[in-house]
Amino acid sequence: MRGMACTVMPMYNEAANLTEQFPRIFDRAERNATHELHVLIVDDNSPDGTASVVVKWMNENPHIHLLSEGKRGFGEAYKRGMARAIATLDPESVLQMDADQQHDPSRLRLLVSLTQYGDQIEFLSNLGWLWRTRFRRHV
After folding, report:
1. Closest listed residue to residue 22, CA positions, set 1, 45, 38
2. Domain ranges of the chain
């Protein structure tokens, strides 16, 4: 059984990008042997109908989720999205990806596959660099 990885994507006025982003994300997701990929969209009440576009995609793909609340900013959207992903989806890994196409969705498969090697943080820049570091949890 594959584990779950959830990518959190904050969005504001990204409806036009979704028709390109979702296929690029999920095209490679099926080929990941270690994890099932889910995407949680955090929409800050975009006036361009981003949430409506996400809902249409959700009807076709059960791995797409939506959190739509008042506009609170980019950083706050990441925090709310990560908290929601952990609370409701219980993924083994949580990743973050910007919706404005600065991050290449084809790299998600690499990041997800690296999580199988234990407690570490993977950083993948939009320039294609990968930096890995181990960390220890302190309870």
Report:
1. 38
2. 3-134
State yes or no: pLDDT of 76 exceeds 60: yes
3-134 has CATH 2.60.40.2230 classification = no
| CA atoms lying within 13 Å on the CB side of residue 107 | 17
Determine contact, residues 107/124, Cβ cutoff 8 Å: yes
- Hey, what are 54's tokens? 């996400």
CA distances to 38, 94, 101, 124, 137 from 97, rounded to whole Å, are 12, 10, 9, 10, 24
The pTM for the full model equals 0.80
| H or E segment to which residue 123 belongs | strand 120-124
Rounded Cα–Cα distance for residues 118 and 113 (Å): 11
Q: Specify the higher pLDDT residue, 21 or 52.
A: 52
DSSP for 62-105, written as a single string: TTEEEEE-----HHHHHHHHHHHIIIII--SEEEE--SSS-S-G
